[in-house]
Design goal:
Blueprint: H1 3-11, E1 19-21, E2 24-26, H2 44-107
Antiparallel strand pairs: 1-2
């Protein structure tokens, strides 16, 4: 990859959406995690109402987990691309140094 293209890649805005603190990552664009309802086993009516709340909760939980998964995958992709770009830059710098040293050795034999 030419240096100019690498510079453009490095200048691109980061696509990170989650936050990393120490070794903990947290999604930031998914809102609050929905709270699971308690199941009330006092009687049949209470249990039925609990099941209704659980049925309302499950799609909210799925939406939240899907969002967190998508955000995490996006951040992993961004981190991987950044690491690959840094490795490529280092490899190209090393190759240039090796070529310059070889040129100098040939010139000053």
């Amino acid at each position: 990859m030419p240096w100019a293209a690498l510079a453009l890649l490095a200048a691109a805005p980061a696509a990170f959406t989650g936050t990393l603190s120490g070794s903990s990552w947290a999604a930031t664009g998914c809102g609050a995690k929905p709270m699971a309802p308690a199941v009330d086993l006092k009687n049949v009516d209470a249990d039925n109402k609990s099941i209704e709340r659980v049925n309302d909760f499950l799609p909210l939980l799925k939406t939240y987990v899907d969002c967190v998964t998508q955000e995490a995958n996006g951040d992993l992709k961004s981190v991987s691309q950044s690491a690959n770009a840094a490795q490529l830059e280092a490899r190209e710098a090393r190759e240039k140094i090796v070529a310059d040293v070889k040129t100098a050795q040939e010139k000053f034999k």
